[in-house]
Amino acid sequence: MYKVKVFVTLKESVLDPQGKAVQQSLTNLGYQGVQDVRIGKYMELSIDGSSQDVEATVKEVCEKLLSNPVIEDYRYEIEESVQQ
Amino acid sequence: MKFAVVVFPGSNCDVDMLHAVKDELGQEAEYVWHDADDLSQYDGILLPGGFSYGDYLRSGAIAHLSKVMAEVKKAAEAGKPVLGVCNGFQILLESGLLPGAMLRNKNLKFICKPVELKVENNETMFSSLYEKGESIKVPVAHGEGNYYCDEETLRALQENNQIVFTYADDVNGSLQNIAGIVNERGNVLGMMPHPERAVDELLGSADGLKLFQSIVKQWRESHVVNA
């Protein structure tokens, strides 16, 4: 069993109004040094299979459903999890 | 003309959509559940607004993989009119039937109000009864209606005259104030404003009626020619 962490973020070229609002709020809190905030999604998947298959599956599901390639990028980390 | 109003779990404008074509226009129309596997008996497909599957992940992301969408694609390929309003538009974007994607509104607020639209293209089966440049009043109700696409796609939309409606004022941050677009073939329209909520002066506006009437007109004309 593999534990997969998927991070989906808006592309650099896409404005993130939510991140901008949070950054503004941090500035108001006194954190002048925080120049930029980008908000994304974090997902955890548990996948059964060989390590090669798992990687192929992760790519496929990221492209088909977990991210929208028009506006988002994704990256992932695969960890082998200890059988319970 | 017989319409299918596709209902997903979480659709909430299906009743208004059925009312627009059935009661206002006197056409046949039926609700079709999201797991339907045959839409061949319908002449037009309407995807209503709402929050399909709770808008989980992204608006329209889960709905676009539902069983009925394969049938909606077939209908689009057959040249039948397919109209997606609000969440229906988002589903069409996710399914790739229309280009681009929706971002959250620029001001991060859910915007629910009547807005002024400009008819940019009246040479589509959805807009033929409007004048080019006509100003119409139609309500919007969305949190993610900030239309986005890359420059290349935008150029293609402009060159092919695929932008059908724009907002008269910047409502939600949409690129070029885009409110509604058609596919290249011109038989799939997606728009964020709700024409089905503007079909009677009692509702504040009847400007949405012409959109549905345009669809019926085109269907009648094509079927008279074929008869």
TrEMBL record, chain A:
MF terms (GO), sorted A to Z: ATP binding; phosphoribosylformylglycinamidine synthase activity
Enzyme class: ligase
Keywords carried by this UniProt record: ATP-binding, Cytoplasm, Ligase, Nucleotide-binding, Purine biosynthesis
Main location: cytoplasm
This protein's pathway: Purine metabolism; IMP biosynthesis via de novo pathway; 5-amino-1-(5-phospho-D-ribosyl)imidazole from N(2)-formyl-N(1)-(5-phospho-D-ribosyl)glycinamide: step 1/2
Entry EC no(s): 6.3.5.3
Reaction catalyzed: N(2)-formyl-N(1)-(5-phospho-beta-D-ribosyl)glycinamide + L-glutamine + ATP + H2O = 2-formamido-N(1)-(5-O-phospho-beta-D-ribosyl)acetamidine + L-glutamate + ADP + phosphate + H(+)
Cited Gene3D superfamilies: Phosphoribosylformylglycinamidine synthase subunit PurS
UniProt GO cellular component terms: cytoplasm
UniProt keyword Nucleotide-binding present: yes
GO biological process: 'de novo' IMP biosynthetic process
Compartment(s) of residence: Cytoplasm
InterPro entries found in the cross-reference section: PurS, PurS-like_sf
Family: Belongs to the PurS family.
Function: Part of the phosphoribosylformylglycinamidine synthase complex involved in the purines biosynthetic pathway. Catalyzes the ATP-dependent conversion of formylglycinamide ribonucleotide (FGAR) and glutamine to yield formylglycinamidine ribonucleotide (FGAM) and glutamate. The FGAM synthase complex is composed of three subunits. PurQ produces an ammonia molecule by converting glutamine to glutamate. PurL transfers the ammonia molecule to FGAR to form FGAM in an ATP-dependent manner.
HAMAP family xref list: PurS
Record note on quaternary structure: Part of the FGAM synthase complex composed of 1 PurL, 1 PurQ and 2 PurS subunits.
Name of the protein: Phosphoribosylformylglycinamidine synthase subunit PurS
Annotated source species: Bacillus thermotolerans (Quasibacillus thermotolerans)
TrEMBL record, chain B:
Highest taxon, organism lineage: Bacteria
One Gene Ontology cellular component: cytoplasm
Xref: SUPFAM superfamilies: Class I glutamine amidotransferase-like
InterPro entries per UniProt: Class_I_gatase-like (IPR029062), PRibForGlyAmidine_synth_PurQ (IPR010075)
Main location class: cytoplasm
Keyword Ribosomal protein appears in the UniProt entry: no
One Pfam family cited in the UniProt record for this chain: GATase_5
Pathway noted in the entry: Purine metabolism; IMP biosynthesis via de novo pathway; 5-amino-1-(5-phospho-D-ribosyl)imidazole from N(2)-formyl-N(1)-(5-phospho-D-ribosyl)glycinamide: step 1/2
Catalytic activity, reaction form: L-glutamine + H2O = L-glutamate + NH4(+); N(2)-formyl-N(1)-(5-phospho-beta-D-ribosyl)glycinamide + L-glutamine + ATP + H2O = 2-formamido-N(1)-(5-O-phospho-beta-D-ribosyl)acetamidine + L-glutamate + ADP + phosphate + H(+)
Subcellular location: Cytoplasm
Protein name per UniProt: Phosphoribosylformylglycinamidine synthase subunit PurQ
